[in-house]
Give the backbone structure.
Amino acid sequence: MVPVLLFYFFSLLAIGGGILTVTRRSVVVSGVWLIVSLLGVAGLFLLEGAEFLFVAQLILYVGGIILLFLIAVMLVNFNAAVYTRRFRNGWPAVLSICLLLAAELLALLSAGRFAAPVTPAPGLPNADAVADALLSKYLVAFELASVVLLAAVVGAVLMGQKRKEHAS
Amino acid sequence: MTAQLTPFHFIAVSALLLVVGIAGVLLRRNLIVVLMSIELILNAVNINLVTFSRIHGQTHGQVFALMIMAVAVAETAVGLALLIALYRNRGTVLADEIDLLKW
Amino acid sequence: MTGLHFLWLVPALPLLGAILMALFGRALEPEGSAPARLPGRLCSALVALSFVIAALCCLEIWGLPGHRYELRGSPWFAGGEWGLLLDPLSAELTLLVSGIGALVHIYSLAYMERDRAQYRFFGGLNFFVAAMQILVLANNYLLLFAGWEGVGFASYLLIGFDYQRWSAGVAGMKAFIINRAADAGFLLGIFFLILKSGSAHFGTIEAASRHWSSIEITLAAALLMVGAMGKSAQFPLHIWLPDAMEGPTPVSALIHSATMVCAGVYLVVRSGFLFAYAPEVSLAVSIVGAITALIAATIALVENDIKRVLAYSTVSQIGFMFLALGAGAYTAALFHLFTHAFFKSILFLGSGSIIHALDGEQNLKHMGGLRRRMPGTFVAMILGSLSLAAVPGFAGFFSKDLILGESLGLPNGWLFFAFGLLTSFLTACYAGRMMCLAFFGERRKGTEPHEAPKTMLVPMYILGAGCVAAGWVPSLIHWREWPLMLVSATVSLAGLDIAWRFYIATPESRTGWDHRFGFLIRFLRNRWYIDALYEESILNGVILRSAEGAAMVDSHLVDAGVNGAAMGTAFISRILRWFDRWVVDGLVRFSETTAQVSSSCARALQSGLVQTYALLFIAGLLVALGYYLK
């Protein structure tokens, strides 16, 4: 009973937050609602028994990415954006396409074999299991991920630089 | 309302979140919000992966989701840096005013 | 080989002259140069030559049985043929035509010497002579009619010779149209004759007519009479002759006094076998003649234009001839025709000499005292007018006297006799008046005249001799009773005396006339209002209405047709324009729109906006997933 309620609560946060993110006029408000949505997603992770991802989500997304967003927002002149149109031309058509897509997906997925509830097999606690997999089977991926992050850092720094004047 | 949580619930949430994110990518003019929507999409994918991992009773999906999170971070950082550079060059962050890809 | 084989040359030579003038005449007279001499000389020579040949032929037939020669030629059409007939009747006329024709040609050499269009004049004159010869020498009605029309046409050409003058052109048309109207009757008569006898030949018809009923003969004769009246200018178809004086004087001399106007007389004589058996028609001919003679004489009395006096005189004298014809006195009529040809042509040529000398002055009231200045002309004209007035000793006396005698033979003959006598008196009056006004008294106004050149005088002298001599020869054959001669002589001399008295001796006795006889004078001056009547009824009534009708037809029918065609074309073009705009242009616009739409669709794909591309991804995903939906 309680998990079901929690599920609905967190999914409301996730989806509702997502919708609000997309529709707000002010970019900062969008960012705040993104936080809400990510928190909802985190809750969903928790419900599914992925405690490690729950924590990782909180730290990485909410703590890191949102921060980045808000800093970037402040670097860009966001005031002007408040007074212009929010959505692109022809948004009803696009919206209807998206709704169609939603319906299609739900229809397709409901035909799949996802109806049976799942009870997780007892075993190691989640964090341990993830750590085991990460450091044995997916070690290369783990390392590559850090390389990617490095590359991203370098690239971001490079692109953030002010352009020097050309000589000629 | 069912008494039991089935994987379909989570998958449905994931699908809906995905669509919300797609809508945001396609509809908003402000590129920052577009990037936020991309985050939403990635999160939806993560929910999916975790659900599948739970179905199979293994952690592979969760590891995959972790990788995605890492890539998402990298992508956000680079994307925002690009955005700021673009802002410096073009003076705007509105998507329909940046159409250099025409030629 | 007799000379008669050359008879066809008599009409052919002048015809050749006319053709040559028509084809080459223009080339002979380029602009700016002096008038050419060749047309006149050539044409005169041709007519003179044809006279010689005609004379020879006439001498020939005297030796032939019946004094006639006929050349039956190849058939023409509808019973006519290309044949010639030379008997005493046609002999008299052919000699008259070619003889006087030659004299008038020679006269014209001097009279027309300053005119620019020599070839047109002499060509027309030659053509006239040729047509008249065809008329008199034809042996059938159709060929006669061909000549008849030919002289009508030549008359039209020559009356309107000075075509730049409006009045000349109108006069030419008037002559031709009235002739044509009369010819309608003539043609009907010819058709009737051909219908009844199967041929147009004189002899054939005469033989056939013996078996016809009197009604048929009367009808034929009446129709022929209508034609004769038109050509010979008898009342009421006389109005064209005075206006015909618009033509040059030699034309008046030849055509309208001596020859063409006698064609009607010739026709009646030639058709005598009909008229002899149609007493009502003959009587009508006499009545018409008598009336015409009197009316014309009264008008001539008040005319001031010398040529108009002579024109009305001609009408009057031909009336005399018709009077004789109606009485069956064909010999008398022909005799008068013969003498009239001489004295009338000499009078016209003389008047031409006066006009030529006075630089175009034709008004009698402006002349006077020309006797001293132009003695030759004076002599010629004295001879002519004394003959006209029928003074004893002159040709006109004998011929008129004969007619007056024969007129008593008609039913109610005394009435005709009285008409004739009265007309003779008036004739003498106006002849005397003309001579007094022109030659006697003091010079009234204008330039100093000079005598005419030899070329003009010699023909006049020749004719003058004829005026005297022509009378004696036939008269010695037929002598008349002396009481009649006495009466007519008295009348003529009385007329001349009155003229002398009123115009020369005591002109002041005429002063009150305008007051007392004003109405009568006005009536006569307006030609008995006959012309006015014609103008009112036919011209204004019929012709104007028909002209208006034609104009209406033109504007409503013809123009309507044109407008209708234009509107039809406009309508069709409107349809085509619709077609062009909607179908053709529609196709073009369709392809344009298709290209535009497809290109804008294609362009949309390349908008450069990332979100558009993303949208396309999602749309593709949608489609792809749709595949799995089923």
In short: The two ends of chain C are 129 Å apart (CA to CA). The longest strand of chain C covers residues 69-71. Chain C has 25 helices and two strands. Chain C touches chain B through nine residues (CB under 8 Å).
